[in-house]
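Hey, I'm writing a tutorial for new members on how sequence and structure tokens pair up, and I'd like a real worked example in the thread rather than a made-up one. If someone can provide the structure for the chain below, I'll link this post from the tutorial.
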Amino acid sequence: MEGVPDAHEIVSGIWLGNKRAALNEKWLKEHHITAVFNATKDVPFSPSIRKQYRIPVDDNLKPEEIRNMTLWSHEIVYNVLKERNEGNQILIHCMAGMQRSAVIVGMYLISTRGFSWHQAIQYIQSIRPIAFRPNPNFKDSLIAFDKSYHEEILPNITKMEW
């Protein structure tokens, strides 16, 4: 999109961006990106990135694509958390950095900041205004993750004995 940066740092170490950011070797190096989560079926990875995760989802509003994002949500968030805990700077991208990748960042915020799905959308849009525009195509995936995280995962984490 004209005049919009290719990526924005949403929280420390987590960048939300587009295809151009993912393929821009200079940008990746300047921002010390060491792990990339690619929410497309066909955009290649930069050869300089060793930690590569592909989430093969199309942004075509087909129910199976939204279902797949929902099914993979826990594994995706687990891997983002793992990479951040290892100190990696992460770029999460799709084609435009508006829908698929924004939902993944939203899931991360739900699991690390205690946000609701609605708060996650608002927060991301406050930093990257094009996110979730014109409509949040994968909102159902974000809502499902929010529900499962708060009703199934979080209660079990708080019950664990350390």
